[in-house]
Amino acid sequence: MKTMASFEEIQHWLISHLAVLMKVNPEDVHVQEPFTNFGLNSIDAVSLSGDLEDYLKRPLPATLLWDFPTIETLSRHLSGETGNAAATG
Amino acid sequence: MNKIAFNEIDHLVHPVNSVKVPEQYGMAEALERYLGDPHDGRNPLSFAQAVALDELEQYPERACALLDEWGLPDFYVPAACGGRLRSYEELISLLRVVARRDFTAGFAYSILSLLGSAATWVSGTDCQKQKVAQLLKERKQIILAYNEKSHGGDFMATGTNAVKVDGGYQLSGEKWLIGNAARCAALTVMARTRDEAGPRSLSLFLVDKSALDPHSFEHLPRIKTHGVRGAHVSGIRFKESFVSDDSLIGGEGTALEQTLKAFQLTRVIIPALALGAADTALRATLDFARTRKLYGARVSALPQVRRTLVEAFIDLLIGDCLTTACARAVQQTPEQMRLYSAVVKYYVPTSLEETIDRLGVVLGARHYLREEHWHGIFQKLLRDNVVLRYHFNAALNLTTIGVHLRDLAQQRAHADADTSALQTRLASIFDLHQPLAGFDPNGLSVYTRGRDDFLNGLELALEQLRQLEQRTLVAQVERVLAERQAADDEQRELSALLGRDYSRSPELFEQAERYCVLEAAACCVHLWLHNRERLGEFFGRGDWLVLSLERLLMKLGQERSVLPAEYEERVAEELERLFEEERLFAVVPLQLAQRNE
User: Do the Cβ atoms of B230 and B180 come closer than 8 Å?
Assistant: First the structure.
């Protein structure tokens, strides 16, 4: 069940997805870097929640990446590891 | 290879259809009658007055007082908030009537207040909505204060700060290049509530000037402008201005989200000004071409001139189809408005700017006279209309469209649409006689994911055209569909090739522009299919549609097809008829004010 994806699974999926989308090596996608560093600004970022919806098979707000601006914080949030606490910065 | 010759016109018998003007256009006809003959210089909303005030760089006070009296601002307030805004389609028809007479009034009096109030309708509290509704009822103005001198339209770099204090916030900073800054009663201000950069650092405040300490703010000097000279463009400086907690709109850190939604409403309305300007440009040019004789014939009879006039009329009809569809979609498919609002805001003013330029060539020297022919209105609207491109960042609209292209292409590749639901939605948007749903701001979204009823409904439209045996239109729509496919393919190739550079590439901007043309084509087809029996003989016969699709296909780089001359002749006849009967050059040709003898 995708809805039960673990922190590691989500993080792995995000790394490979971004690597394909942005045409960079997966090794260059660092989980603590903000999405903006990969060329995803606030406006572009809204399209990524849709990809996550497909992967996790559940509805997500389009503004998700605004509240969880790194792969690590986003993966933690989606795997339920940190509850609803939004990351800052 | 794209050259297709149509040797005969489809002679299909349409049911004789009398014009049944949809009721939402009745108000615009009433406003026209109220405002009177625009050629009569005694009327405040006349061409002579508009040009005279422009020369003096004076605000159109008398025109505004007249519109106040009629109650135009009541149409800015949603019905659910006690106003008369029942549909954006109706509001747009009213603004076209104003803008065709004086663009400055349409801009400074109407658009600025619509911009200023939109965020409150989208995410304000009931109390804030009542406050804005009351201001407009008292005929006061509310404006949007986002822009700053050093950052322009880059809102993320906003330097105006809102510091939390007991019971409210202290605003400090400068908003610059703001229309009506010194005249308005209230402002929707974007300010920084967190130091760090990021989409959650900005907030919106509904600021009532009368509640501010008068020593805590000042107006900046008026700025001279090339167009809309009578508009009062300046700025405002806040110096630790205290605003109470209840002035915060929609919670701290939500400014970006609210703005992306509120702009969907205003982007749909703004093209009304361009449509109004282009109507007058065409009317003034046609008037000249009909009476002026060259080489023993009327200028309008010269084939090249006639082609320009017909194409200008066609451009107006295309812009009208797209604007009307997007306006109705606000209420029928609000979740798709992030895409559609950017498309209509980019395409209509930009394409009509070109149209007006080409009309200027026909008008010759008269197009830059500041008096004489039609009191010199042409040079004024030429300067005014440009404000739509620069004041409301056209590039930003293309970026917005560009963001959507990947999911749109992907969705179409795996098309599994529920066609009967799609057909129902298309009918509710495009059949102008169908009542609209109430406006629901909660339906707006910051991203339209893979949804595009206009273009995704094109196969359904093609099927209907086949059933109607409209061979010319079938062939044209097949070409549009091939262009749509090519655009989707190119999107996939380019994004794979460019990776992270794709979203900032010039190629993406080009793709977004092409996408607008495709959307316009789809809207023309749907609007015709859903109204061909009820908007009169000219509309139903569809010569205009054949020429519109041909024109749009040419914009996509296709060669001009050899069409029978009758298409152009019949569209030219209709243009003359509308001119003689004083009707708007539009899908619904409203009755305009009669000329005083």
Answer: no
Type of residue found at B588 = V
Rounded CA gap, B422 and B452, in Å?
Answer: 10
pLDDT digits (tens, 9 = 90+) for B137-172: 999 999 999 999 988 778 889 999 999 999 999 999
Instruction: Return residues 15-74 of A near B (CB < 8 Å).
Output: 21-24, 38-47, 49-50, 62-63, 66-67, 69
The DSSP output letter for B251 is S
- Residue B294, beta-bridge partner list: B297
pLDDT digits (tens, 9 = 90+) for B496-522: 999 989 988 999 999 999 999 999 999
Measure CB to CB from residue B499 to each of A22, A49, A62 and give the nearest one.
A22
Q: Cα separation of B140 and B73, whole Å?
A: 9
Check the CA dihedral B48-B53-B59-B65 and report its sign.
negative
Give the three-class secondary structure for B138.
coil
Run of H or E residues at B187: strand B186-192
Residues 6+ apart with CB under 8 A from B505: B494, B498
Q: Longest C-alpha distance within chain A, in Å? A: 32
Strand partners for B152: B148
Residue contact A23–B156, C-beta within 8 A: no
For residue B558, the number of C-alpha atoms closer than 13 Å in the C-beta half-sphere is 23
The one-letter amino acid at B538: F
Which is nearest to B445 in space by CA: B254, B260, B235? B260
The vertex-B237 CA angle with B234 and B238, nearest 5°, equals 145
User: pTM of this prediction?
Assistant: 0.95
Question: For residue B9, what are its two tokens?
Answer: 């016109």
Which among A23, A47, A86 is the nearest to B403, CB-wise?
A47
Q: Closest to A66 (Cβ–Cβ): which among B199, B501, B504?
A: B199
Residue-level length of chain A:
89
